[in-house]
Amino acid sequence: MSAVPAPSVPTPVAPAAVARAAVTRDPELAHRAHRRTVRLVDPTGRPLAGASVRVEQRGHAIAFGCIGFDETERAWRRLSGRTPAPGEDALLDRLDALWFDVFDTATLPFYWGTFEPERGRTRTAALRAAAEHYVSRGARVKGHPLVWHTVAPRWLEPLPDDEVLRLLRERVRRDAGEFAGLIDTWDAINEVVIMPVFDKDTNAITRVAATQGRVPMVQLAFDEARAANPAATLLLNDFDMSADYEHLVEECLAAGVRIDALGLQSHMHKGAWGRDKTLDVLERFGRFGLPLHLTETTILSGDLMPRDIVDLNDHRVERWPSTPDGLDRQADDVVAHYRTLVADPRVQAVTYWGLSDHGMWLHAPGGLVTEDGTPKPAYDALRGLVRGDWWLAPTTVTADADGRVQVQGLPGRYAVEAGGAWHDVTVEEGDDAETLVTVR
What we know:
By secondary structure, the protein is an alpha/beta fold. 32% of the residues lie in helices and 23% in strands. It has helices spanning 69-80, 88-100, 112-115, 124-135, 161-178, 204-212, 214-228, 243-254, 274-286, 324-342, 377-389, and strands at residues 17-20, 34-41, 52-60, 63-67, 105-109, 140-144, 185-190, 233-238, 261-268, 292-299, 347-352, 395-398, 404-409, 412-418, 421-427, 433-438. An eight-stranded parallel β-barrel has the order 4-5-6-7-8-9-10-11, surrounded by five helices. The chain has a four-stranded mixed sheet with strand order 1-13-2-16, with no helix packed on it. Strand 14 and strand 15 form a beta hairpin. Helix 1 packs across helix 4 and helix 5 (161-178) runs parallel beside helix 7. The longest helix is centred in the C-terminal third of the chain and has 19 residues, at 324-342. It starts with 16 loop residues before the first strand and ends with a strand.
């Protein structure tokens, strides 16, 4: 009797080595991490088995932003020929370095009243210089805002309503078009819920909003910005997290306004929202199926504003310093807030409203660093997330028998180095996919 050959057993293939960011091991955030398989081959298509591959992250898909107002003022000062105060440029250089060590998206000020304080005389050159400063170093830029009733030009007020509307349309189209390709994300219109009933001062925008209505004002902003820059991402932005804002969104969508993302402000001068309120806000505004941008986040490192204050602008104090307890509280609140936001796939951007206490709104201690550029614990804590736990530091792995390695982390831009050359890799939301890289 002839021997029966033993069945062949496939040689097991070892899984591809994985370059993995720490976030992939975080039970609350691991679902936001995704994977991309990279297969390395030589010019003949042969797998580079056992190749040593260096992997590193180059950028987040989630926009981690902060305002860039200081750089705008520096550009304006230089263009105006003004001499800096002693130590001013050195401090701004320090703040700039701290900015880029955490953030990747700058919000620049396009408040009409300061952008064009005299009719026909704009700060276009200064805003362009500031935008180019950020873009040249790999950051994204957002303009804020195209339409808003506060900081509206005083020279508009004597004009009749039809002239105000005509000039408003021209302003939106002019600036959205002028900066197209450099600034492609805008708060198209800001704080519309209160706009037609605003009574803190007189201004021409509130006046025409009262006669036109909220939805037509939103339609104007979006239509003119879209006409000037069809590729722009346009936001409806508000501080009012009540049902009134939800109703406005519903009415705008029903009227056919194409909103690209919803802006949600979170100035927490009376105390951090906390997890429950944050989740409630995300759920109520996430139901529209639009990306969510937390556009203006402020968390204090000093005494909190009294709870009975309704309009934050009404709270004025001579001094508002940080406190030891406030510094610790701010760090804890920043970490908790950012972790809650990043855990929600609907959140595509989070912008902190002020790197330093210098120039902080209401003179509040809301900066992540002090006026002299000293980082607070909150700065170090946020950096530890954005450029630490949520960032893939340079890592070396070995390709498997098929020349494969895997990159795993938050969505974003990554790069792999093999054979002395770097190759770009994108990790995206969704299923794992394979990128073929030819190493020459």
